[in-house]
Amino acid sequence: MNIPQIVRSYVEAWNARDLDRYLATYAPDGTYSDPLLPQPTRAHDLREHFAGYFAGFPDVTCETEALDAISDHLCVWRFIIRGTNTGSFRGTPPTGRRVTQPACEFIEIRDGRIHSVVGYMDVLTTLTQLGLAPSPAT
Q1: How far apart are CA 89 and CA 107, in angstroms?
Q2: 49: containing domain
Q3: What CATH code is carried by the domain that includes residue 90?
Q4: 15's torsion region: left (phi>0), alpha (psi -120 to 50) or beta?
Q5: Which pairing describes strands 98-110 and 113-121: parallel, antiparallel, or unpaired?
């Protein structure tokens, strides 16, 4: 199976931190969810969410580990997030600490546009790396 060009555009736009191009990949009723959002959110309401993320981690990069089509309408993007918390993030002051976080997103395509994205990441790992949560017991 091939990766649809719309998914490639989505990944490229995210990595370029180009929110206009990123949000343009979604269908008008497209949604996004991840552990930092209380519920799936319509793509057109995500600008503030991601602008805040980029402000908190202005050097953020996402290194693609794999981008795989798992059906004709579903792809999975596995990536590593890396960045330094040098700006305010979700109401907390900058810590100056680096974050390295594996993550993945399931990207559903309908009619040539992104219908939904469901992202998964370990928020506890991020909070621990930022010094905002204690390290889990070993």
Answers
A1: 25
A2: 5-129
A3: 3.10.450.50
A4: alpha
A5: antiparallel
In sequence order, what are the beta bridge partners of 79? 64, 103
CB 47 within 8 A of CB 32: no
Residue 53 has pLDDT above 80, yes or no: yes
Closest CA to 102 of 122, 85, 127: 122
pLDDT tens per residue across span 10-43: 999 998 999 999 999 999 999 999 998 889 999 8
137 domain-assigned:
no
Q: How far is CA 49 from the centre of its chain?
A: 10
pLDDT at 67: 95
Q: What stretch of H or E contains 23?
A: helix 19-24
In a domain, 136, yes or no: no
Domain count, the chain: 1
Torsion angle of C-alpha atoms 114, 74, 52, 125, degrees rounded to 10: 170
pLDDT tens readout for residues 56-75? 999 999 999 999 999 999 99
Cβ atoms within 10 Å, residue 71: 9
Q: What distance in Å separates the CA atoms of residue 110 and residue 30, rounded to the nearest whole number? A: 10
